[in-house]
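Lab notes, practical 5.
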Amino acid sequence: MIKNNIKLIYVIVLLSFSVPFSTTVSKTAIAGSCNMGCSSAGCSPCQVMIETNHDQIERHIDRKFDQHNSWTIEWYDNEFHPALRRMIQQFNAVMVHQVQIIGQFFDAKHRLETQRLFQTLEAAANKDYMPSEGMCVIGTGVRGLIASERKTDLVKNVYANRAMDRQLLSAETLSGRDGESDKLSRLRDFRSDFCNPADNGNGLAILCGGGGSGERRNKDIDFMRTIEAKYTIDSDFGNTDTGLTEDEQDVFALTANLFAHKVLPTENLERDNLADTVGNPKNAAHRYIDLRSVAAKRSVAHNSFMSIVAERSTGTRGDEDGGPYVKRIVLDLGVPAADIHILLGDNPSYFAQMEVMTKNIFQDPKFYTDLYDKPANVLRKGAAIRSVGLMQDRDIYNSLLRSEAVLSVLLDTMLHKEQQRVISKMKTLKKDAKEVERP
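Output from the prediction step:
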């Protein structure tokens, strides 16, 4: 195809030279030369010679073009085309080699990026999972809260049952015979443990009879010293308890003076007055039901008081106890080690542990300097603090429920007389209406 194209080019060139030269130039030139002094007969040889030369020149040109065409085709086939093939092969080889180099660059790039990513993640993991002393302080400080909280429920039930048995004059209790036995037992405890000879204008010396220690005087009536001022009350009714402690005796005495100072009366409430021989209730039974209503209202107030006492009762013991860690927090605040026992007791109560974990721990400047920590540890501390805050919110919620119960009972008691008056008035109106309806 290339040969045919070259021949076509030669033909076009040949025509462009041969036609004007053989026709226009030669004939015109000959005609002009013949008209310049030659006769018409003398111009004929000149014309023939010119035409002959023109034919020779044309053939020569054609031959040269054919030779040039042959040489060009031969040169293309023998020299240019093989060289072009080798050049293309060289280009392909170089391009493949360059692409391989580019691929190696991409591989190296991805490998380095992957290594950098792994190293970044490794560094982040080392940073995020590095233990924090502040986090450990919170974690170990709250480890005994749940067990201590469960223990408060037991202590509260014991105190509440004891108070209810005392009011109902249950058998095998100090008030089991009557109200006088209750007062006699309380008077005996007062003389031996709580009596202060200086009270009543120094008039209790004979009554005290030398009884009453300096630390326990008047603790049967002093709510502040007996309950409020103590973080931990030595009160434990577990399986290891072998007898009443001084704190438990103080709480029992204070409870008797605060609630149901006079136990439910027993006048005319003997067994025979309550029911007949077959169990049918008598009028005294209705009065006894009213007295139980009074005891029920008192139990609502008992519940709030016993909850305050129970949350201050002795905390858990053993390996799971958080007491040593809580004491260490207080020790870091600068409290002398000898005073920590007086402040928190041997086994800090639930109230004491919550007091330290929700208040005292934030009074240590070291807590805030430890916040200059890794972001992950700061977030963990925040979550731990919020968890303790949720426990505190639950305690506040339960306290509000107890307050609402006490207020509702108080309101019902205040409206009792008015309610009775309205009921009596309604009965009178019904009676008058029936009398009017009679014919």
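Observations recorded by the TA: The chain is about 75% helix and 0% strand. The radius of gyration is 60 Å.
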